[in-house]
Design a protein that fits this description.
- The chain has 154 residues and is mainly α.
- The chain has four helices and two strands, in the order H-H-E-E-H-H.
- A two-stranded antiparallel ribbon has the order 1-2.
- The radius of gyration is 16 Å and the shape is globular.
- 27% of the residues are buried.
Length: 154
Amino acid sequence: MILLLDDVEKEKWLTQHIPHRVGAALAGCKNMKAEWAMPPMPSMAGDPFHKYCVDRAIDEGQKTGVRWLVDLLGVAGTETGVPYKPDKKRTTDVTLERFGASSFDLKHPDAVKLAKVWKGCSQATSHATTDTNHFPVEDAELAEALTIVIKYLD
């Protein structure tokens, strides 16, 4: 049985948690279209090292935000990119089902895209590895996944 969030908790998620991750995922994303397109990043005052640090923070934040949002939709990915529903055992775990909504259909063609981005973001940000050949999670892949997520949440 899925424990639904109460109205106060739903409101916090809809006005704080989800927008926080969407904003983090959008920051610096160059491939978003239409109303979600971001303006060019202003040039940083100061030396190139500080700009580099801010750019790295945005890059890590994007990947973490996108992975979090895909997970919220109820999609994860295997090593080969096959979508599956993440196992949520704890009462503190949240997916769309806790809102009374349906998780993303794992048979939908976009589920494979989301699964690959989820896995790529997981491997790129969770711990230091080498030679993993993880799925690409550059701007184009993140923008595509984020577009799918936003359309589904809308």
